[in-house]
Amino acid sequence: MTTFGFGLAIPIVLTNPNTESFLIVGLPATLTTIPPLLSKDGLEEQRKIFSDRLKIAESRILGLQSGNTLLQQPNSLLKTAREEGWRNPDKGISLISDAESEADRILSFLSDIEEVKDQSLASIERAESITGNPGRARSIFEAALTEIDNGSLRVAENKLREAKLLAEKIESHWQEAKDAIEEAEKSVSTGEGHLVSGLISTLEEAKKAMADENPEYALAIVSEIPSQMGDVEGLMERARKSIDDAENEISSSDSESIAEFQQRLEEAKEALERGNPSLAIGLSDGVTRSLREEAEAKTAVQRALRQRKSIEGEIPAGEVGSEWREMLEQVSSLAEAGNWVEANNSMQSLTTELDSLATRSSEAREMLEFLVDDWRKLRNRLDSSGVSANNDARVETERALSESEVSLSEGRIDSCLELLGNADTAMETLRRLV
After folding, report:
1. Which of 2-11, 252-261, 268-277 has the lowest average pLDDT?
2. Is residue 12 domain-resident?
3. Domain carrying residue 23
4. Fewest beta carbons within 10 Å, which of 1, 101, 198, 297?
5. In a domain, 375, yes or no
6. Domain closes at, from 9, 25, 40
7. pLDDT above 50: residue 36
8. What is the pLDDT of the chain when averaged over all its residues?
9. Is 372 a member of any domain?
10. Backbone angles phi, psi at 2, to 5 degrees
């Protein structure tokens, strides 16, 4: 019986006032009315806030979960919040915040993956338009989609990047490798003998590499066949010299990948012993080229890192320069790991971007100095004409010029230029007053 029912029952009991009637009506009313009165603990307002937050969070995550199986953790946190929040509203609100943050993190990661997926798919489609059929890149891409469905987002991202890289290599080298193979086939078709057999063997290996979707390797080993056919007699000597050059490079190198290069050199020697000098040249020249490229990259990176203070001085302070500072730190980390070529590529990207920033900053600085000088003259004329310093246009001009100086010093060039435009507009208004 509720308190409301108790109120309705009182007139009836009063028409028959006896002890039994009062007990029948009064005892249930007491049992249902007293506990809520005693349960007041001062947390009613927090519980209301908790309840409102819970409804909003559940509604939002329910909407996000449509077609998405990755929000189990936020749902679990909301379930725990629902179970414990009534007893402890503060803890419940904290769990709701955790659930919302986790949902935002997952959705942000999904957004990043979606961008990588679009880039990967575009590269794959371009590669397939070149090869005429789907290949390993498409298989890896499909596997990445499966990982997304399974909730393995990090694995999916790695697979998407792997598929994109493979497709880009096909896009960059496929047609060139295909043309080189056709040219090589024409070259060897009129020849015969032991050395020509070696060239044919190289050609077959190049075709196999194409079948394995490795046009970069196919191009590397087949591109020299036509010229090699023109000088078969000197081919063996050239192969020996190429191997000697590679051995010299290895002996003077401290590369982290020295074992890999030694293995490729051994393969070159074996190819030469089998009468396949073209393959030996391709492998040993590749060793020499890679080691020299790494050595040059190492020298360039070390020289740049010795000037790190100077480079840091070119990076704007504050949030604008954070990405460039991260790039510089990445260069340092790559150098410490011995990844000199990648470190050099990153350093070149960094210096190119900083050079561009310096050019834009110089142009903005010229504009700022011109307007500041013009403002100095105009301000004197305004004072002479009695235009108050509190004039809105004067205040706006002073503010815009001051903030543009700050923006320029922090590397926010676009913001600086926008503020200079505002200052120029305000000054044009003031020119009409004198």
Report:
1. 2-11
2. yes
3. 1-40
4. 101
5. yes
6. 40
7. no
8. 77
9. yes
10. -90, 170
Structure tokens at 431: 């020119």
Domain count, the chain: 2
Compute CA 117 distance to the chain's CA centroid, rounded to the nearest angstrom.
12
Q: From the CB of residue 215, how many other CB atoms can be counted at a distance below 10 Å?
A: 26
Report yes or no: 74 and 106 within 8 Å, Cβ to Cβ: yes
pTM for the model stands at: 0.38
> Ramachandran region of residue 193, left (φ > 0), alpha (ψ -120 to 50) or beta?
left
Q: What tokens does 410 get? A: 């922090």
DSSP characters for 77-98?
HHHHHHHHTTT-HHHHHHHHHH
Judge contact between 244 and 229, C-beta under 8 A.
no
Cβ-Cβ contacts under 8 Å for 431 (sequence gap 6 or more): 378
pLDDT at 315 over 70: yes
Estimate to the nearest angstrom the gap between the alpha carbon of 294 and the chain centroid. Answer: 26
- Distance CA(121)–CA(137), nearest Å, equals 9
Average pLDDT of the residues in 143-166:
81
CA 85 → CA 52, 74, 123, distances in Å?
12, 15, 49
Radius of gyration of the chain (CA): 38
Report pLDDT digits (tens) over 94-139: 777 766 666 666 666 666 777 778 888 888 888 888 888 888 888 8
Q: Is residue 371 part of a domain?
A: yes
CA nearest neighbour of 83 among 72, 74, 99, 95 = 95
